[in-house]
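User: Here's a chain of 174 residues. Predict its fold as tokens.
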Amino acid sequence: MQTVKIPVSIDPNRAAASKLSYEGLIPGVQLKRLNELCAGDCSNVAVSLECGVDIQGIVYLKGKAVTELTLNCQRCMTLFTTEVTVDFCFSPCGSEAEIDELPDAYDPIECDEIGEVRLHQLIEDELIVAMPLIPMHTEESCSKGDQDIVVGEIEPAQEERPNPFAVLEKLKSK
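Assistant: Prediction complete.
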């Protein structure tokens, strides 16, 4: 594999025919949506990508992306960094029929009008999906990990109030 800058977009059919492989970085500052979800800037994304055609004749883009994100712990409200790793295997599809026939090992992707796939956007989408829903430290490293946090006060149960519809029952019995 050659170490190169990961292209912004790629023609999956040409890349698969040439059996291209990429190994390189996507600058974290270019991934604006991912940065908006983080408490700080995300680090550069290390990507390895292999393009090819499998024995069934299916064009695929297979690879791995790894980055470190700075997130806000929802338990103790302090910043921490976590590594997010994504393995992906995509295949370009042009119609619903192609998507239905695609084996489960592949995720369908749509090409634009000139037959290319926006690779940076695709990898950014996968990293966003792989982010933790509720970011937290491990219990050992979190300052509030073993403590119950109470927000507000719970009012004691009130006495039983009279039924407001009791008057209607009296009218019904007449």
